[in-house]
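User: I'm writing a tutorial on reading structure tokens. Could you give me a worked example: one chain, its sequence, then its tokens, then a sentence or two explaining what the tokens reveal?
Assistant: Sure. Here is the example chain.
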Amino acid sequence: MVKQQAQQGQFIVVSLRRPMIKSAGCTIGVTQARGAYTQVLGGKLSDK
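And here are its predicted structure tokens:
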């Protein structure tokens, strides 16, 4: 459903499910070390 609707808009999905992450065009990960700083990682995913 998200893939079909994405042709007409953008979505922000919060998920830990591998199939959802694999089907994303771009991912952004946010991590926080124990009581330290927050780190943001992201990138485009290839189709292969």
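What the tokens reveal: Helices lie at 2-5, 18-22. The radius of gyration is 13 Å.
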